[in-house]
């Protein structure tokens, strides 16, 4: 997983509340377990009309936001059914950070596990950042996870907080498996001691 330390990029304003996971990535695209190739289907129903043509009024179809790395939304982002494809689609499009007043719990957890940083900020701050974002590519926003601040184009710093363990894992680029593997020496020592102390327990090998 790619580490997240400090990101400066274009932010796309999405002034919508209750953006559910089916809006983020519709269910018909969940047939794959590959994390690549989903970005083209991100917000599929909002980005494309019934013929498959782009809707020019949708933010991510506008030239200044086609390479956005930050998304700013309203309350309850990521609600609905649980699907890891939602952060996969965001990441494959290029979005590494979502800023909103709050997130659905499962999406919030899945985002961290897949390298997408969800930042909670009050609604009024999100609205200010959306106004900044409407300046397009001329107004880049910085998200500094090490210092836990969002920096507006005018230089104003806005503090946010992240669970310390999740912050550590993102800074190090570790998912849960990677975090566990950091303790491999201790795990190996425990297993060796267990075999010595309880030899009657059958050893399990993984092919």
Structural summary, described in words:
- This protein is of the alpha/beta class and 207 residues long.
- It has a single domain (6-197), classed as Aconitase, domain 4, CATH 3.20.19.
- The chain is 32% helix and 15% strand.
- It contains eight helices and seven strands.
- A seven-stranded mixed sheet has the order 4-3-2-1-5-6-7.
- Strand 5 (140-144) and strand 6 (149-151) form a beta hairpin.
- The chain is globular and about 70 Å long.
- The relative contact order is 0.16.
Overall structural class, as computed from helix and strand content, comes to: alpha/beta
Overall 3D shape: globular
Major beta sheet, strand line-up: 4-3-2-1-5-6-7
Give the proportion of residues in helices. Answer: 25-40%
- What is the CATH class name? Alpha Beta
Second-tier CATH architecture: Alpha-Beta Barrel
Give a summary of the structure in a few sentences.
This protein has 207 residues and is an alpha/beta fold. The chain is 32% helix and 15% strand. The chain is globular and about 70 Å long.
Task: Name its key features.
alpha/beta, 8 helices
Reconstruct the topology from this structure:
Elements lengths: L5 E9 L6 H4 L19 H4 L22 E4 L11 H9 L3 E4 L4 H9 L3 E4 L2 H11 L6 E5 L4 E3 L5 E3 L4 H9 L3 H6 L2 H14 L10
């Amino acid at each position: 997983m790619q580490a997240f330390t400090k990101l400066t990029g274009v932010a796309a304003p999405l002034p919508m509340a209750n953006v559910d996971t089916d809006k983020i990535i519709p269910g018909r695209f969940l047939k794959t377990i590959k994390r690549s190739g989903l970005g083209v289907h991100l917000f599929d129903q909002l980005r494309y009309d019934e013929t498959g043509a782009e809707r020019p009024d949708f933010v991510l179809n506008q030239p200044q936001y086609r390479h956005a790395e930050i998304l700013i939304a309203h309350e309850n982002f990521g609600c609905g059914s649980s699907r890891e494809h939602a952060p996969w689609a965001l990441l494959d499009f290029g979005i590494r950070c979502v800023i909103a007043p709050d997130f659905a719990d499962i999406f919030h957890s899945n985002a961290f596990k897949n390298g997408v940083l969800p930042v909670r900020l009050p609604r009024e701050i999100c609205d200010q950042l959306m106004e900044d974002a409407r300046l397009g590519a001329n107004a880049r926003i910085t998200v500094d996870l090490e210092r836990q601040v969002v920096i507006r184009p005018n230089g104003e710093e806005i503090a946010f907080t992240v669970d310390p363990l999740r912050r550590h894992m993102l800074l190090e680029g570790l998912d849960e498996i990677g975090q566990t593997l950091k303790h491999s020496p201790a795990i190996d020592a425990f297993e060796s001691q267990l075999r010595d102390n309880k030899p009657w327990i059958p050893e399990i090998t993984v092919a």
